[in-house]
Amino acid sequence: MLGLALIIFGLSYLAAVATLLALRFRVGMRLVGAVPLVLLTLMLGLFGLYAAPAFAKYGPGLVVSAEWNPPREAYGLLPALLGTLLTSAVAIAIAVPLALSAAVALNEFLPGLLREVVGSLMDLTAAMPTVIYGLWGLFTLGPFLQRLINGVSSLLGLGVRMEAPVSLLTAGVLLGVVITPYIAAIVREGYALIPKAIEEAIYAVGATRLEAVLLKLRYVRGYVLGGLFLGLGRAMGETVAVAMVVGGNYVHPTLNLLSPGITISSLIALQFPESSGYAISVLFAAAFLLAAVGLGLNAMGVYLIRRWGT
Amino acid sequence: MRRLLNLVGIGLITVLAVVAVVPVVSVVVDIYMKGIAAIGRLGGLWTFLTDIPPSPTATAGGVGSQLVGSLFMTALGAAVGVLIGFPVGVYIGEYRREALAHLSRGVVQTLVEFPTLAVGLFVVSLFGLMRTEVNQIAAPVSERLAAALGDWVTYFVGELGPYNAYIGAAALGLVMMPYVALFTASSYASIVQPLREAAYSISSSEFGAVFVVLRKVVWRAVLTSFLLGTAKIAGETAPLLLTAFGNRYYAPFTGQTGAVSLWIYSAALQPYQVQVDSAYGAAAVLLTVVLAIFIVAKAVGRHV
Asked: Which of residues 235-274 of A touch B (CB under 8 A)?
């Protein structure tokens, strides 16, 4: 029934756009421009609709309980929430210094042609499929981190601390690698907009190279902060790369970075195909949270760039 | 003291910059070295590009069926992305003083990095609501088409399963739409006023001015955004996970469909070396495709 209504709505929207574009062009264009709004409303509405049973049944227990027990229909999202927070925190802690340095080094130290080439390469890696990063994380980064951590911990006399190459730490580091070129691209965009006069003024008062860099970074702080939020949004929403290396442990909540865990998006990806009953509704609630947080972070990032950008 | 600090700071920045680049280079080198070796082990390039993925006991195989699915869904998704994204971008860029355009621009900007998994979930749940009705409308049409054109049509049309290539393409299109919209908007906004006035004066209608004359001014930028968006969705996995679902075999697009990225994801998590090998081979193929589109996009965009 709802489906029929949706089909009729979609078709009449199309027809309205077509007629109005021919008759009253501007009004038709407004209808076209409203499409993203309609889609977003539809998406949040649909997630809310499907998630309602879960919110009604579990209430706040949904986000503070850690059980995942299909036979008893007891579900909680706590491990996934913790996992998402931990992995994104690690990712941001790694990516921000690296991305800032890469952006600065690229714009300050490299000569013209080389800058162009390396810059293009960075842009390419920002657009590289994340499933490829996942493959690399699973078979190269994970074992490397395991050897490194266990080597250090046995030197300190703590024995083997990381039992598997898949863990929350691996996911966090991998996310850091994924979002570094992306944040660097945003910072570089701002960096390129610094007026020549400002740059000359900085050096004219006798600033050293480092002081000049710091001043310039402060000048483009909108881009730096915006990049941070957009990177965070990307880290929280990333699915497959994380699902491949996080370990898929959705039963035991853990704060230990070195053990396998789960994140919201990988929980949905791993569980949705085999869920039924209330589990589906719980996963939609998770998706609702994911969408809301993702939208909030992105809006924040875009706002910061717009506010201080130009 | 200041000079010492300067040296230390600059040194630190250089070291961190190198650390930032190393993992990324490592990914590309790692994928190509292991990928090319794996393609060799699995029966050479031609077999790899045409065969179905290896079963755990097989010694040869490829990603032919996955390539077909990827190609179909990416092409369709790119078409959807442009058909929605371009007009939306024109509105945001050309009528940017209207309040609605402002709001729409904000929404599109936040959608650019929206979790793509959520897009897939949205499309599959929306389609779940409409599936019975769509099939009631589509079934007689597809029967008549099959009778008129022959059986090969059933590869494309027919009763749609809960997971199929068409909703996969729709999800990819929605992922791509904001990219095209934003690029189009900024290139329309950068058209100089005299050119815009000239366009309006030689066209018989506003539609013609905006969509025909001005389009020719910005077509390079729009083409670049189209190519970059295509490169992005060609490798997307998360939106396909819940919509196309994956399939090892050559199969009708009306049911579960495989894609290269989906195969990499599922094969990498298998305990069998031959399937992990095929994941590396598939990753090398996917990376090559994305790289190629990216280079073409850069070449087109150079003259903007």
From this structure: 236-240, 243-244, 265, 268-269, 272-273
What's the pLDDT tens digit per position in A116-142?
888 888 888 888 899 999 999 999 999
CA distance A66 to chain B (A): 23
Both tokens of residue A268? 């949905």
Say how many domains are in chain A.
Answer: 2
Q: A65 in a domain, yes or no?
A: no
Share of chain A above pLDDT 90, in %: 28
- A283: nearest CA in chain B? B121
Question: Which is nearest to A287 in space by CA: B172, B236, B238?
Answer: B238
**Under DSSP, is residue B42 helix (H, G, I), strand (E, B) or coil?**
coil
Q: Which residues of A touch B298 (CB under 8 A)?
A: 120
Q: Are residues A37 and A137 in the same domain?
A: no
Task: Answer whether A291 touches B (CB < 8 Å).
Answer: yes
Whether A280 and chain B come into contact, CB under 8 Å, resolves to: no
* Structural domain containing residue A24: 2-52
Any bridge partners for residue B257, and if so which?
Answer: B245
Instruction: Let me know if residue A58 belongs to a domain.
Output: no
Please check whether residues A19 and A133 belong to one and the same domain.
Answer: no
Task: Tell me, yes or no, whether A245 lies in a domain.
Answer: yes
H-helix segments, B42-151: 44-50, 64-94, 99-112, 116-149
**Distances in Å between the alpha carbon of A86 and those of A167, A181, A250?**
11, 21, 15
Based on the fold, state whether residues A45 and A82 are members of the same structural domain. Answer: no
Which DSSP category does B271 fall into? S
Supply the pLDDT for residue A300. Answer: 87
Average pLDDT over residues B127-154: 84
Output helix, strand, coil percentages for chain B, rounded to the nearest 5: 80, 0, 20
Residue-level pLDDT at B36: 93
pLDDT reported for residue A136: 95
Q: Are residues A172 and A47 in the same domain?
A: no
B122 Cα to chain A: minimum distance (Å): 6
Question: What is the pTM (predicted TM-score) of this model?
Answer: 0.92
Cβ contact (<8 Å) for A138 and B206? Answer: no
| E runs forming strands in A157-287 | none
Give residue A309's pLDDT.
56
Burial class (CB in 10 A: 0-12, 13-18, 19+), A148: exposed
Query: Sorting pLDDT into bands at 50, 70 and 90, what band is A273?
Result: confident
Candidate from B19, B104, B290 with C-beta closest to A36: B104
Q: Contact A50/A43 with Cβ under 8 angstroms?
A: no
Examine the domain organization and report whether A155 and A223 are in the same domain. yes
| Residue closest to B240 by CA, chosen among A214, A164, A239, A18 | A239
pLDDT per residue as tens digits for the range B101-132: 988 998 998 888 888 999 999 999 999 888 88
Kindly report the number of other CB atoms within 10 A of residue B58's CB atom.
16
- For residue range B213-222, list pLDDT tens digits in order: 888 888 888 8
Distance from CA of B237 to the nearest CA of A (A): 7
Nearest to B119 by CA among B259, B242, B239, B245: B239
| Burial degree of B298 (CB within 10 A; 0-12, 13-18, 19+) | middle
Q: H or E stretch including B176? A: helix B165-189
What is the arithmetic mean of pLDDT over B21-41? 92
Considering only CB atoms, A127 lies closest to which of B101, B231, B237, namely: B231
Q: Is residue A122 part of a domain?
A: yes
Instruction: Find the CATH number of the domain harbouring A280.
Output: 1.10.3720.10
Domains of chain B: residue spans and CATH: 25-301 (1.10.3720.10)
